[in-house]
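Entry for the shared binder. Reason: the reviewer on the internal report wants the predicted structure included alongside the sequence.
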Amino acid sequence: MKAVKIVVGLALAYVGIVVAFESLIGVLQPEPGGTITITTFDADGTAHDRVVSSLESEGKLYVAANHWPRAWYHRALENPEVRVAGQGAFRAVPVSGAEFERVNTEHALPAFFRFLTGYPTRLLVRLDPVAEPAPEAAGSDAPEEE
């Protein structure tokens, strides 16, 4: 019986560490190198900003859901038109198969990080640039030259 109590205590302590770490990340939203701020949108158009890990592979930009809280990822799948701060509009495309394996292998997560986050399944999205409409010409009321 004592062994069961120890195992349960260790399991609860581990869950507490994961919850504390994930909560801290969610509150602090750290922005070290290798992160970007992505804006995703609800069905009603409400914008949500989130700092996410950015990865580059073969000249393409990817973002990774490396934590259990991943509402941004689900919003990006539901409404793939997203924005990246300072970079413009993108279309979020879920990544799987050989492309996932290549990017995941190139940007493997350290074991300690995976331990602290509770070993969530890693999900990747490729961000394909979207051409934005040209801004309206300033001074369109100006007389035309002949």
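Summary line for the report: The chain has four helices and six strands.
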